[in-house]
Design goal:
The complex is a heterotrimer of chains A (291), B (278) and C (252). Chain A is built from eleven helices and no strands. By secondary structure, chain A is mainly alpha-helical. Chain B is mainly alpha-helical and 278 residues long. The chains are: A mainly alpha (291), B mainly alpha (278), C alpha/beta (252).
């Protein structure tokens, strides 16, 4: 029937539109970055200076800031994320405590970024400042370490729920075989569950890392916004996302705006590949797990 | 026997560490909720909801932000829900390489930094329109909500038994009717849950609004003009030097969190209550 | 030969390159119950799904030969019109979960956009539910969801739904395989009653069910028609040794 043919065409159209949307995002970013790409070329990525007054722009301080905060956040959150994943995936699958934990992590995931930043600013920053004073470090309070701390709290629910889903894919007869041989739970986790799910857990951490890299508001509010390469974890800095958030509306010259969009393009490319690889691994795992 | 005891001891220690780390990781949640209740609840009264901001040192209310958030969520829903549902159906109905690629692309879209989406809405809407607007902010939020609508539609419809469609075809219904009168109604609660969770998420987004919706201390219903939103107001007030503004930011945070949590809890409870029994 | 409502002529069907049904020639008598039996995988379901063209919903479905319904090829009939004349009931009861009992019965009208007055619908609902032996059990709960009924009640609701559009033929695809013995007995009684109004083609893997309710029996094996005749003949004096082996339970 004619209506069915139109409808089926409509389905394809919607699918195609979304693919087109993602493609156009990339193309638009490239086009809007062209003035900056022309001016600074690839050396934009490795240059050390970001100076809006002299209109000299380069990305290295922010790339370093982004990597430092994200790696540190991932490192801090890792033991907690894995603990929650094993707790809810293996130790306490049902019952009041595990559903409370599941609820709590759901809520943590639902708290808006700006509230994390706000809380970090008024609760963590003074705390870090005291800490810095007692270690005789300049007491900024804000800085890379503070941002990492807030970020790590934010990605725990994400990383743990990804890891838990992967652990749930481990066939239970494999685990039971392990227990039947007299293994303790620790040994089953180490020898059966972990080897089976390691690539999925890796993918989950990768995706959490991608989240951390792109996270904007919470970081912007506690990182101190300094456009230079940081020399210590307790110094103020900026990430790719936070400098865009800070300067976009204040950019007066076209080249400044274009350079900020260039930073956005770099951010897009990094997170695109991280998400692509992470999702491919998980897609493949869940297909294997089903068959 | 000593070796077995050692193994059991190791297992106990490991179990203890897992429990300890798990409980430690929910502490921030309570710390945040405690701060919000302690500092936010005191600011909240009827006036807080129905008045506009005042110049410092006063703070006034958040009516502008409430209206703005509503407007933004409305635009985002119009942008994302219809195409998201249709695209979700496409993913259920299609088994080929394009559909597999699209599934990954949609996950990638969901993982894109919100600030990048903000830049895109700026380039696509703010620049051509010549100014900041609710429309551009709503479109940015709509792009963020889109993957959630697609995925919840796909996951829900996938679970509807094929026999229901057969029953409909056997009665002489065509494909269109079968989808709209049989399949979608059976999956409506799941799709609705996905939409609600999507709304809860975008209602708290700030970054994509910084240079699209921009913020506006006055009441505005016009989609072509800038509007404020709760998270934008929280950001601006939190970074301000005025104590009353900061307090208002706590109050607004409390309102925002209450909204998000209510949707989450509502979806959990309502999902059970309203799910279509198959 | 007016009594033969459906004629299957040199008909083969299957998926991709494989024919599941091979060169079937068969006729179905009007207002009789014809049982199609055979071990699983013999093509029983495929055969009846070809009669109302449901088979073609599979993307890689293939067929050759012809099926005549009232003298006209089904493949030259619009499938939507065809399915209104040839109703179908499936293995598992599948009432529409979002519709009430009432709406389920008239779903054939609603889904096809046919509007009748409330009175006319009321009559159709009552009549169809009575035909399906369900009226007495549900008449006070017509606006409850169909999915709250028991399995056997749900299956009778599906029969009422199929009967509501006044079909000439009713295809039953193992309608009792998901039901308990008591519900099965009720459906069997119903089948015998229904043949007054419609021609029934019943796919079953239950040998005694075929013996209990059918007038004619078809025995399929590996996609081929092995034997066809009156149920009595098939069950008492089968001509083909394969039929006998099947009936005494040597396979499938």
């Amino acid at each position: 029937m004619l209506r069915d043919r139109f409808f089926k065409f409509g389905l394809k159209l919607a699918g195609g539109l979304i693919a087109l949307l993602i493609f156009s995002i990339f193309v638009s970013l490239v086009i809007a970055s062209i003035p900056s790409i022309k001016e600074f070329g690839l050396s934009f990525v490795f240059g050390k200076e970001w100076n809006p007054v002299e209109e000299h722009f380069s990305a290295l301080p922010f790339i370093i800031g982004t990597l430092l905060t994200s790696v540190l956040a991932l490192a801090i959150s890792l033991p907690f994320s894995l603990a929650i994943a094993f707790f809810s995936g293996e130790f306490s699958k049902k019952g009041l405590i595990s559903s409370l934990i599941a609820y709590a992590t759901d809520l943590l995931a639902g708290i808006p970024s700006v509230i994390y930043g706000f809380w970090g600013l008024f609760f963590l920053v003074p705390l870090i400042r005291k800490l810095e004073l007692s270690f005789n470090i300049p007491p900024y309070g804000v800085g890379i370490f503070t941002a990492s701390l807030v970020l790590s709290i934010m990605i725990i629910p994400y990383a743990s729920s990804m890891a838990r889903d992967v652990i749930a894919l481990v066939p239970s007869d494999l685990k039971e075989a392990g227990f039947a041989l007299g293994s303790t739970r620790l040994e089953v986790i180490k020898k059966v569950i972990f080897p089976y799910s390691v690539s999925g857990i890796f993918a989950g951490l990768l995706l959490a890392f991608g989240r951390a890299i792109g996270e904007t508001m919470a970081v912007t509010m506690v990182i101190g916004n300094a456009n230079r390469i940081p020399h210590s974890l307790f110094e103020p800095a900026n990430t790719l996302a936070s400098v865009i958030a800070n300067e976009f509306t204040e950019a007066t010259s076209d080249i400044h705006l274009s350079s900020l969009i260039y930073l956005g393009l770099i951010l897009f490319i990094i997170t695109f590949f991280i998400n692509y690889i992470g999702n491919m691994i998980i897609e493949r795992m869940s297909v294997n797990g089903r068959s | 026997m000593g070796e077995v005891k050692l193994r059991i001891l190791k297992d106990r220690i490991f179990t203890f560490i897992i429990y300890l780390l798990t409980f430690l990781s929910v502490i921030p949640l309570f710390a945040i909720l405690f701060s919000l209740v302690k500092k936010g609840l005191g600011v909240i009264n009827l006036n807080f909801f129905i008045t506009l901001p005042k110049p410092p040192p006063d703070a006034g209310g958040i009516l502008n932000a409430l209206v703005g958030t509503f407007l933004l969520v409305l635009i985002a829903s119009i942008v994302s829900i219809p195409i998201g549902i249709v695209a979700g159906l496409f993913l259920v109905e299609t088994r080929n390489r394009f559909a597999n690629m699209l599934r990954v692309l949609i996950n990638v879209l969901q993982g894109l930094p919100s600030i990048v989406i903000g830049i895109i809405a700026y380039l696509w809407v703010v620049k051509p329109m010549g100014g900041f607007s609710a429309l551009s902010g709503g479109i940015a939020l709509g792009i963020m909500m889109l993957p959630m609508v697609v995925k919840s539609t796909e996951e829900t419809i996938k679970l509807i038994p094929y026999t229901l469609r057969e029953a409909s075809y056997a009665l002489g219904a065509d494909y269109f009717t079968t989808i709209f009168k049989v399949v979608l109604p059976a999956g409506i609660s799941g799709i609705l849950n996905g939409i609600l969770l999507g709304i809860a998420r975008i209602a708290g987004e700030t970054a994509p609004l910084l240079f699209t919706a921009f913020g506006n201390p006055y009441l505005n219903f016009n989609p072509a003009k800038p509007v404020d939103s709760l998270p934008l107001l929280i950001f601006n007030y939190a970074m301000s030097p005025y104590e009353r503004w900061q307090n208002a930011a706590w109050g607004a945070s409390f309102v925002l969190i209450a909204f998000v949590l209510l949707i989450n809890i509502g979806v959990k409870l309502g999902g059970r209550r309203w799910r279509v029994k198959l | 030969m007016e009594s033969e409502i459906i004629k299957i002529r040199d008909f083969s069907a299957g998926y991709g390159q494989n024919f599941v049904l091979k060169n079937i020639n068969l006729s179905f008598e009007k207002n009789k119950v014809t049982a199609i039996m055979g071990p699983s995988g013999c093509g029983k379901s495929t055969l009846i799904r070809c009669i109302n063209r449901m088979h073609e919903l599979n993307l890689d479905a293939i067929h050759k030969g012809d099926i005549l319904f009232n003298g006209k090829s089904v493949f030259e009939t619009n499938p939507i019109l065809l399915r209104k004349k040839i109703g179908m009931v499936f293995q598992r009861p599948n009432p529409f979960p979002t519709m009430s009992i009432y709406d389920n019965v008239i779903a054939g009208y609603r889904l096809n956009g046919i509007k009748l007055s409330k009175k006319e619908f009321d009559l159709i609902v009552e009549d169809s539910l009575k035909k399906a032996f369900l009226w007495e059990e549900v008449k006070d709960n017509l606006h409850k969801k169909g999915t709250f009924l028991s399995g056997g009640q749900q299956q009778r609701l599906c029969i009422a739904r199929a009967m509501a559009v006044n079909p000439d033929v009713l295809l039953l695809d193992e309608p009792t395989s998901a039901l308990d013995p008591k519900a099965t007995a009720m459906i069997e009684e119903l089948i015998v009653e229904l043949k007054k109004t419609v021609t029934i083609i019943l796919v079953t893997h239950n040998r005694t069910q075929a013996a209990r309710v059918s007038d004619f029996t078809v025995f399929l094996y590996l996609g081929e028609l092995i034997e066809y005749g009156s149920t009595e003949t098939i069950f008492t004096t089968p001509k083909n040794p394969k039929t006998e082996e099947y009936l005494i339970g040597k396979f499938g």
